[in-house]
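Subject: design request, 260 residues
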């Protein structure tokens, strides 16, 4: 079969590379939760209570709404909840609602069928919800979701099915929703910019994450934990924070954004 042994060795090397990329690194490897509850450090009473509540919520299959200011770690909690849930072997799919143009929201969330509109891929496209089948869909900044999409998301929560753009029939889906917001959905409902029925569907298990300025007791622990991570990431040894630097950082107001 081979006139030259070098060709055999070349084919063998290519076959090994194929096994690594196609068999061991499946697409779902990109859809795994990265963080566990061990990454949520701190002994402050508020964060300890929140962590314990999230761990209990993880054992259920209910919808979760994570509330808190920007930078408090909502995404970190979502990852950890998925990893501790019975869906941990399934995909963890994220969608940042504020980053999706309204015109693309439906196809991004529900996918589309072949030839459903001009410019559509011939093979169609799977949406984020279907991609999260038997796993978890994390909707970050859910308050920014257009009203038209809120109606469709409500149907997913009620009927456990989706209808892709250009589809002819609903398709069943098994997905757990974790939503996060830095705005008060209750206030948005009063203003008419968020559907009340969807709010109640999301607000089954609310988890509020305290801001850093309200738990400065944990500042030193958090700072040194982050320093160790940066040390590994940058490859530069860091001795730690001086007392003066730590006190200076503690005096900062640490303003997050939470609109009530």
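Subject: RE: design request

Done. Sequence follows.
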């Amino acid at each position: 079969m081979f006139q030259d042994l070098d060709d055999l060795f070349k084919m063998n090397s290519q076959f090994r590379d194929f096994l690594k990329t196609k068999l061991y690194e499946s697409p779902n490897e990109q859809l795994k939760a990265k963080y566990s509850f061990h990454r949520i450090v701190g002994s402050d009473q508020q964060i300890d209570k929140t962590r314990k509540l999230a761990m209990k919520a993880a054992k259920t299959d209910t919808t979760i709404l994570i509330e808190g200011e920007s930078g408090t770690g909502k995404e970190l909690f979502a990852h950890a909840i998925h990893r501790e849930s019975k869906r941990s072997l399934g995909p963890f799919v994220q969608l940042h609602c504020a980053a999706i143009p309204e015109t693309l929201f439906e196809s991004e969330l529900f996918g589309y069928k072949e030839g459903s509109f001009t410019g559509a891929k011939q093979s169609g496209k799977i949406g984020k919800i279907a991609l999260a089948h038997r796993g978890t869909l994390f909707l970050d900044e859910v308050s920014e979701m257009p009203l038209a999409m809120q109606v469709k998301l409500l149907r997913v929560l009620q009927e456990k099915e989706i209808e892709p753009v250009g589809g002819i029939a609903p398709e069943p889906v098994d997905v757990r929703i974790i939503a996060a917001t830095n705005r008060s959905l209750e206030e948005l409902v009063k203003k008419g910019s968020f559907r009340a029925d969807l709010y109640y569907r999301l607000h089954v298990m609310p988890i509020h994450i305290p801001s850093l300025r309200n738990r400065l007791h944990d500042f030193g622990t958090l700072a040194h934990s982050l320093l160790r991570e940066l040390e590994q990431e940058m490859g530069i040894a860091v001795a730690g924070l001086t007392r003066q630097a730590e006190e200076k950082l503690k005096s900062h107001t640490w303003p997050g954004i939470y609109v009530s």
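The two ends are 73 Å apart (CA to CA).
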